[in-house]
Write a structure and sequence with these properties.
single chain; mainly alpha; Serine Threonine Protein Phosphatase 5, Tetratricopeptide repeat; 18 helices; globular; TPR repeat
């Protein structure tokens, strides 16, 4: 019969290839032979986090912490306690766990980023006057504005009774500029003229993205181009403060797979360079961890035709 260390090694191998349930079972076998090893509970907790089994993950981190682990393992357990508490909706417990992790390891960026997400910074300006919140009207829409539909469909959108902002260009960059709020320097005349137009109602970036994701496959091609053509400055504007969004990241991978498998408009190097830039944003590691395994695997598989170097680089950038 294998020893506890052997079961642990097998669990590590299963975890490395993202077989999280199998890895959890192997760690359970190791725990049955060594119930006083906090590392095993920490490892199994991470498997449960990937599986979004917050209750089992919470149980494991609590047992691991009661075993009085060394600081290095304790930081991991506290971080995972924060994630499980967040998953269970216990924000106060999540705050305490991330703070405790940072107290032991002040340089832990993952814990700092998570704490920032659950504990927004408060305004501390002198003379700040508290005002009652104002009601803001929200318009619910079923489809994208007409100028974006034109780009995606490749044909004029049907006439609408509502005035919309006329597209200034037929190319994808113009759509991306409006879609993702890219900013360009405008002359005074352009600014003045733009005030004479009736713009469509401002909507959050992710609203557009979810609409693009819902399009049928035959109409997604240009939507994919919008995402892959985003410049570094546009990405900075979108995510430099808030961190990378899961919806965006998943759509980016989906778009990349589309072109890597079926088209030659983007090279593997261009796509990997864009992915490498995205890895610099806050919350990237957590977002990558929570991305569906099949989507990650599709991206890696799509790189196979581009050689060992591209395949290895893709795996490294998506290592979780």
């Amino acid at each position: 019969m294998p020893s506890s260390e052997e079961f642990k090694a097998q669990g590590n191998k299963a975890f490395a290839i993202k077989k999280y349930q199998e890895a959890a079972d192997l760690y359970s076998s190791a725990i049955a032979l060594d119930r006083s090893n906090p590392v095993l509970y920490s490892n199994r907790a991470q498997c449960h986090i990937h599986l979004r089994d917050w209750i089992r993950a919470s149980n494991d981190v609590e047992v691991g912490l009661r075993l009085q682990p060394a600081d290095k393992i304790k930081v991991k357990l506290l971080f995972r306690k924060g994630l499980t508490a967040k998953g269970l909706g216990n924000i106060e417990m999540a705050k305490r766990a991330f703070k405790d992790a940072l107290q032991l390891d002040p340089e832990n960026l993952a814990a700092a980023n998570e704490l920032e997400q659950v504990q927004p910074k408060k305004l501390k300006r002198e003379g700040f006057v508290h005002r009652e919140p104002r009601k803001i009207s929200i318009e619910v829409v079923d489809e994208l504005p007409s100028e974006i539909l034109e780009q995606i469909r490749g044909e004029p959108a049907p006439p609408s009774s509502t005035k919309t902002l006329e597209a200034t260009s037929a190319d994808v960059n113009a759509v991306a500029d409006e879609l993702f709020r890219g900013r360009k320097n405008k002359s005074k005349d352009e600014v003045h003229n733009s005030k004479q137009e009736t713009p469509f109602v401002e909507r959050p970036t992710m609203h557009y993205l979810k609409t693009l994701k819902s399009l049928p496959p035959e109409r997604k091609h240009n939507g994919y181009k919008v995402v892959l053509d985003l410049s570094s400055s546009q990405l900075d504007e979108m995510f430099a403060f808030s961190g990378i969004e899961s919806d965006f990241f998943e759509f980016f991978l989906e778009a990349s797979v589309h072109f890597l498998k079926n088209h030659t408009e983007y090279t593997s190097e261009q796509i990997l360079d864009k992915l490498e830039y995205i890895t610099r944003f806050k919350r990237y590691n957590l977002t990558a961890q929570l991305t569906p395994d099949d989507l990650i695997q599709n991206f890696i598989d799509a790189l196979d035709r581009y050689g060992v170097s591209a395949h290895a680089r893709g795996k490294q950038l998506l290592a979780r």
